[in-house]
Amino acid sequence: MMVPSQTTGSAADPDGLEDRLRRFVTIWSRAIFPATATSLTRPEFETHLLPLARELNEALHARHFDTAPAQRVGAALVAAHCTDPEALGRTLGVVDSYLVLYCGAEELSAEDGRARCARLQHSLAAGFAQALRERTLAEQEAIARSALAARNDAEDALHATEARFSAVFEGAAIGIGIADLDGNVLEVNDTLTQMFGGLEHHVRSRNVSEWVHPEDVPQVWRMYGELVRGEREHFRIEKPFYRNDGTVLWTNLTVSLLRDAEGAPQYQLALMEDTTERRLLNLRLRYEATHDALTGLPNRTLFFERLEKTLAAGDGARFGLCYLDLDGFKAINDSLGHSSGDRLLVEVADRLQSCATAPGEMVARLGGDEFVALTTGPDTQRGVTDLASRILGTLATPIRIEGREFTVRGSIGIVEGPVAERSAAEVLRSADITMYRAKAAGGNRYEVADPEADARAITRHGLTTALPAALERGEFFIEYQPLVHLEDGTVHGAEALVRWSHPQHGILGPDRFIALAEHTGLIVPLGRWVLEQSVRQARFWQQQLPEGSAGPPLRINVNLSPTQLHHPGLVADTVEVLDRVGLPPAALCLEVTESALIGADEDLLKPLRQLAEMGVDIALDDFGTGYSNLANLRRLPVSVLKLDRSFTQGMQQHPADPVDLKIVEGIVSLAHSLELAVTVEGVETGAQAEHLRRIGCDTAQGWYYARPGPPERLHTLSLADAV
To answer: Residue 372: is it exposed, middle or buried by C-beta count within 10 angstroms (0-12/13-18/19+)?
Structure first.
């Protein structure tokens, strides 16, 4: 086939677009004209298609891509009497093969052009189906009116003359049959005979009871019985029939009761509209709407329908669901391209289908690399874990793509239980949460849903989404825990500890939300707020001390998260807050966890060095938990070690653990040799405080002295020390 030129054209049409559109229309009309019920000639039909082709071309090249024009084109085909399903199929084929070829442009890449073309085809088919449905409804209404008129005319004809009835009977465009009250067919018109295969004796000699079909709706024969008994005048229903050759005829069936002059039931009149082809088209469109185009598996829509039906079952039924997400699939897409990724997904889908072949089992693709498998039956507790094991086992066999082998891994979340306890959305949410637990545990495994774990995950999600608004609404506040000199028991300062006054969950400690704030990036504005509030409070404490009181000013310790350490505005923000509030840098100590500084390079240490050079103390928090090299302490810009409480718990008992004493004594000796002060956390007893004082620790904090509380309590302690 010759590829149409993209450069030839007249002066009026320099790009030759109109000429290419006409050639596209010629191909289109050749494809669908034979399947079109129209009185137009071929050239007239092409003239009718030309503006539709222009709409498709404009939609293909629109800067803001919109598929609505293609939907209008599909509706226009129906309006032009292109209602045969074959006309739709041929149209989609022509658009798929020739639209980009004849209407493509240099500014539109081949991949983008094909993607847009595919979406235009889907929208065109949707517009065609919607218009056909609306046309069908209109025709059905017309048929209903015709049926009513036919019934009235038939009754009049029976009561008047046989000739008048025959005119209506034989001239009708729908199938008409008359039977007695026992169901024996007495008369049929030619239209009905043709619908059943063209042999009149195959219809006239039958009894209506022989036309039972397995797909009959339950109420059809109940309504039929009511009609022949005279309890109802008519009924209308969709009913299938078997033809003599075994094929199925689908009809819109209207059955009416004919009475004699005295009003007694005498005959039954059936009017049939052949809906077979329309039903097949609807079934095909339904299939496309409920199945994944890539893998052929049921899609999210069909899976939810099946799951909701399963959950609506009663009688103690149970279900099991596996939610699968492939591990590392993005890396395959990025390295080999989406085409290879699609081939891998098709292979995975085939393998999953081979795992779910038992009655009551199904597999669906929710989208991307996410699949679900559903099983039902009496023993789903064992069956669903067996299904998950089979899935992981079949994925373990390498998949070969483009000469390379890939081992696919997956994480599976399992939800199992009795039906009717949860909605489909709740089941999927629990399975999704559980799948991520399996992924967090290393992947290539399955985890079973746990209501408590689900509740924690849902709570974490709720807290995460509520964090930004909570900061704006002022739901955070700060408590202060005193830092005490071990030598004389005076208050040295306090550590600022942020709390969240949550409207539903009450007071939350930092362990409930700091990690979430780190994950979302909110830790930076939250940390800046904590710094400013704490510095203001420290300045207020200093102003409240009696004039001429001895000793250094009260200090405030503020925690820094790893994210804050990497933030470029750390130094500038700290300096700005200190200057604006008027607090000396020496009254501020920033606490950094030991784990955050393990392996830290000079770029990370640079802002801490700058702050230390200004006079701000840097404390190494949780010292001893990060397995750091003690020799690295010399290169860190820290002035305080905060010893983790795990080293001093043995001092709470009597006698104290000699090993703990030796370890702490060694750390204190090392710290003092490096000119570092030592603060101990978690002091809970007087004996523990005395041991630490004798060893030489400088300051301590813990419940022995005071629990974290409002700033007023620390001020009271400080005044007592001053007096």
So the answer is: buried
**Helices of type H across 292-417:** 300-311, 329-336, 338-355, 380-396
Q: What one-character DSSP code corresponds to residue 97?
A: I
Q: What's the DSSP call for residue 95?
A: I
Cα dihedral 254, 259, 264, 270, rounded to 10, equals -30
**Which has the closest alpha carbon to 4: 25, 31, 24?**
24
Quote the Cα angle for 339-344-346, to 5°: 95
Backbone angles phi, psi at 678, to 5 degrees: -120, 125
Structure tokens that stand for 270 in this block: 């059936």
pLDDT at 13: 54
368 phi-psi bin (left φ>0, alpha ψ -120 to 50, beta other):
left
* Mean per-residue pLDDT, 387-405: 87
Residue 664, amino acid? V
- 256 Cβ partners below 8 Å, 6+ apart? 147, 151, 227, 233, 234, 268, 269, 271
Q: Which two tokens stand for residue 267?
A: 């005959």
Q: Which letter, b or e, does each residue of 194-216 get, where b requires 16 or more Cβ atoms within 10 Å of its Cβ?
A: ebbeeeeeebbebebeebeeeee
- Output the six-digit token pair for 641: 């070690």
Helix 686-695 with 658-673: angle, nearest 10 deg: 40
Is the pTM for the entire model greater than 0.85? no
How many C-beta atoms lie closer than 10 Å to residue 133's C-beta?
Answer: 15
Say how far apart CA 17 and CA 21 lie, in whole Å.
Answer: 6
SS3 101: helix
What would the two tokens of residue 597 be?
Answer: 């500084």
Q: Smallest Cα–Cα separation from 297: which of 366, 357, 399, 360?
A: 366
Determine contact, residues 241/211, Cβ cutoff 8 Å: yes
Which tokens belong to 422?
A: 């949860």
Q: Give pLDDT tens digits for 653-675.
A: 777 778 888 888 888 888 898 88
Nearest to 29 by CA among 75, 91, 81: 91
Residue 723 is predicted with a pLDDT of 36
Given strand 370-377, what is the order of strands in its sheet? 362-367, 370-377, 318-327, 409-418, 445-448
3-state secondary structure at position 112: helix
| DSSP type of residue 653 | S
Q: Within a 13 Å sphere around the CA of 718, how many CA atoms are in the beta-carbon half?
A: 27
Is the pLDDT assigned to residue 164 strictly greater than 60? no
Task: Say yes or no to pLDDT of 678 above 90.
Answer: yes
In 312-358, which ranges are continuous DSSP H helix? 329-336, 338-355
CB atoms within 10 A of CB 373: 25
**Can you read off the two tokens belonging to residue 566?**
């990497």
Residue type (1 letter), 112: D
